[in-house]
Specification:
The structure holds 2 protein chains of 2 kinds. Chain A has 10 helices and 16 strands. By secondary structure, chain A is an alpha/beta fold. Chain A has 2 domains: about 180 residues, Rossmann fold; about 120 residues, Distorted Sandwich (Coagulation Factor XIII, Chain A, domain 1). The N and C termini of chain A lie far apart (about 65 Å). Chain B is mainly alpha-helical. Chain B contains 13 helices and 1 strand; from the N terminus they run βααααααααααααα. Classes of the chains: A alpha/beta, B mainly alpha. The interface between A and B is large, with 64 and 44 residues.
């Protein structure tokens, strides 16, 4: 396989602090001439000595917390900025959507931008003319096409920017999290377009914080943390690494001064067949310092928007664990969750025997991906948010009954109205 | 709803681009790349010309009126009152010849210095050779220069001079001025990305340049021994002097001086371009 992008021992260092000033730089130059010791300038290392490769036709995910170096990597690949050390090689034409506006020029109209951007990508007039209609219909911004881009809303800029970057025959498409500025319908079209491009042989590098979107689109990727690659390989590994990192951070933010401490947690998941997510077991490894009678444990599965969708609580069901002390493990088994596959939060809390005081404050254990990721399609993902899908899935069947057959009362009634 | 993906045109190879750490600078690769992006340069130039003549109410008139008004003022104060010698020609025609070339240089430089900062949004998101914005300014200014020279020829004719064969040489001194303007524009546009105070100092620099070039005075005022150096090392003065030789003196321009000035202008341009390619590497980071 040919590589579309190769980064070899790439570092990128930014000067920190105020903008360069002529006076400071002159003083520094004189000091250097005189050989006097120089104070070193504070710098930020956005990428440090990293190497990775993206093959042609791959759809590659770049994940990581804010400030981990994702955008810097995109800028290096799109040649906007140069590496401080190392080498970046890119094969083919790069279409990039970095920070909403792509390379839109605010003073030019949408139409003029279209031509200019096409030329910058090295396309001939004929090539641009051929893509023109599909860009205009994809961007769907109507008469705004002939208005200067500076009058556009963020959403319109995004539409035009993505349409340009993805329709001018790029060999390599770079898309960052800006896509999430768009409305649900547009996001879905973006996902479809990106999938279409990779199917036709183009390479995609996708930056996003939306785990299901990444899982649906990408096959492999890397996870960055403070400028370093901490995980790479199949997309599932990268995504779960990312989700764990996020929940670890949330954990650190919480001062743990509850009487019972949570040492560790784990989950076991057997994906179900079809559209539901199957069975789930959550394990809590607890330390109980003093003998406690009937701690009431609660475990909840929450959806990012819908809130708690499954709650298992000893307070409600009255399960009695007796007197516990020392290290104990609580296992909560949930069978046949009728939920659609996706990203869910696991929460845990412990109440005292009568359900009044907390022994362990409610806390987010982590965000897990439930269901078989491979069974996802763009339409099934929760960010699409159309009326065609629901959070809860139950077994159902259809019957279509024609007029004249037995049991056609409903239709007859309707006609009488 | 979605159109089929158009196939990647077979005519376009998937070229391999490599960027690596290093100083950058003048290279054959940089020039080849500029050539490859000539369409983009053309698009930038067309846009500049359009914007210039769409926005300004007077359009071309501005380019013409400004040097004419300046020449009138200089003719009144320096020609009439101070009686500055003008090589035997009417002072107004004399100073207008200098101003036509000088106005091009000054306007190109003042527009070019902010050309990269104006494009900062695009610079941070798309790659194209960074010299394109300043180069497009210098090139777009050529429209004004050509219009200015046509007006100048009209003024010269009105003042009673007849066209002569040497008029055909005029593009050469004009080229010297354009090359010099390009060199200065590249350097100032590039440095201004790093040090914004440079654009504040520019009016002073331009004013100094006006007096360092023979716009309002004649090169004959320069000490004879120094004059050749003055004309070569300030290519603008060689250009202005050649224009005056041809238009006012109806004589052959001094090709030796003009040739040397062109060569020196080319050296300046090469140095400026090399410096630009060195400092462009961090444009996107600091702009």
């Amino acid at each position: 396989m040919t590589a579309a992008v190769v980064l070899e021992n790439v570092s990128k260092v930014y000067r920190r602090g105020h903008a360069p000033s002529f006076r400071d730089d002159t003083v520094r130059a004189f000091k250097r001439l005189r050989g006097s010791p120089q104070e070193t300038q504070p710098v930020v290392e956005a990428l440090s000595d990293e190497s990775f490769e993206v093959h042609e036709g791959d759809s590659f995910a770049l994940m990581g917390a804010n400030g981990s170096g994702k955008t810097t990597a995109l800028k290096l690949i799109s040649r906007v900025t140069y590496p401080s050390a190392g080498r970046v090689s890119v094969r083919g034409r790069v279409g990039a959507l970095i920070e909403v506006g792509t390379g839109l020029h605010p003073e030019l109209t949408g139409r003029e931008n279209l031509w200019l951007y096409g030329r910058i990508l090295g396309l001939s007039k004929v090539d641009i003319a051929r893509s023109f209609d599909s860009i205009v219909s994809f961007a769907d911004i109507g008469i705004a096409l002939d208005q200067p881009v500076k009058q556009y809303s963020t959403g319109m800029q995004l539409r035009l920017g993505f349409a340009l970057a993805s329709h001018l025959e790029p060999d390599l498409l770079l898309v960052d999290e800006a896509v999430s500025v768009g409305d649900a319908g547009f996001q879905q079209r973006c996902v479809e377009r990106m999938a279409q491009l990779t199917e036709s042989g183009a390479t995609l590098i996708f930056v996003s914080h939306v785990a299901p979107m990444v899982t649906a689109l990408c096959s492999s990727g890397i996870l960055l943390r403070s400028g370093q690659v901490v995980a790479e390989g199949p997309v599932n590994r990268v995504v779960s690494g990312y989700l764990n990192e996020m929940s670890d951070r949330a954990e650190e933010d919480r001062a743990a001064d509850s009487p019972i401490t949570l040492r560790a947690w784990d989950y076991e998941h057997a994906p179900g067949s079809g559209r539901s997510i199957g069975d789930l077991a959550v394990l809590l490894h607890l330390t109980v310092p003093t003998a406690t009678r009937d701690p009431r444990v609660g475990v909840a599965v929450c959806h990012p928007r819908a809130g708690a969708v499954i709650a298992c609580s000893m307070v409600i069901d009255g399960y009695s664990a007796g007197v516990v002390q020392g290290n104990v493990t609580v296992r909560c088994e949930m069978g046949g969750l009728p939920l659609q596959p996706g990203e869910y939060q696991l929460w845990a809390s412990i109440h005292e025997e009568r359900g009044g005081q907390y022994l362990l404050l409610p806390r987010l254990l982590g965000v897990v991906l439930l269901g078989r990721p491979n069974a996802f399609t763009a339409r099934e993902l929760d960010f699409v948010g159309t009326s065609q899908q629901s959070l809860v899935q139950v077994p159902y069947a259809w019957r279509v009954i024609s007029d004249g057959e037995r049991g056609a009362e409903t239709l007859t009634t309707k006609r009488r109205e | 709803m979605l159109k089929q993906v158009s196939p990647v045109s077979a005519t376009l190879r998937r070229e391999l681009y490599t960027t690596s750490a290093g100083r950058g600078g003048l290279s054959a690769a940089a020039l080849r790349e500029l050539w490859a992006f000539r369409d983009v340069l053309a698009a930038f130039i067309v846009r500049r010309v359009k914007v210039r003549y769409k926005q300004a109410a007077f359009g071309v008139a501005w380019a013409v009126l400004q040097p004419l008004a300046m020449a009138a003022i200089f003719a009144l104060f320096l020609g009439r009152i101070a009686k500055v010698p003008s090589d035997g020609a009417p002072y107004f025609v004399f100073v207008f010849t200098g101003l036509t070339l000088w106005a091009y240089f000054a306007q190109a430089l003042s527009a070019a210095i902010n050309s990269l900062i104006e494009e900062s949004g695009v610079l941070q998101k798309v790659y194209f050779p960074r010299e394109i914005p300043p180069l497009s300014v210098v090139a777009a200014g050529l429209v004004d220069l050509v219009v200015g020279i046509i007006i100048l020829l009209g003024v010269v004719l009105v003042s009673g001079r007849t066209p002569n064969i040497y008029w055909l040489f005029l593009p050469l001194p004009a080229l010297v001025v354009v090359v010099t303007a390009t060199a200065f524009s590249l350097v100032f546009a590039g440095l201004n990305v790093y040090y914004r105070d440079i654009s504040i100092g520019l009016p002073f620099i331009i004013q100094t340049g006006l007096f360092a070039s023979p716009v309002i005075y004649s090169t004959t005022l320069v000490t004879p021994g120094v004059r050749p150096y003055y004309e070569v090392f300030n290519p603008i003065s060689a250009g202005i002097q050649a224009f005056r030789d041809v238009l006012l003196g109806a004589q052959r321009p001094d090709f030796a001086i003009l040739g040397l000035a062109t060569a020196w202008g080319a050296v300046l341009l090469a140095l400026a371009y090399a410096l630009f390619k060195m400092i462009e590497r961090r444009f996107a980071d600091v702009v």
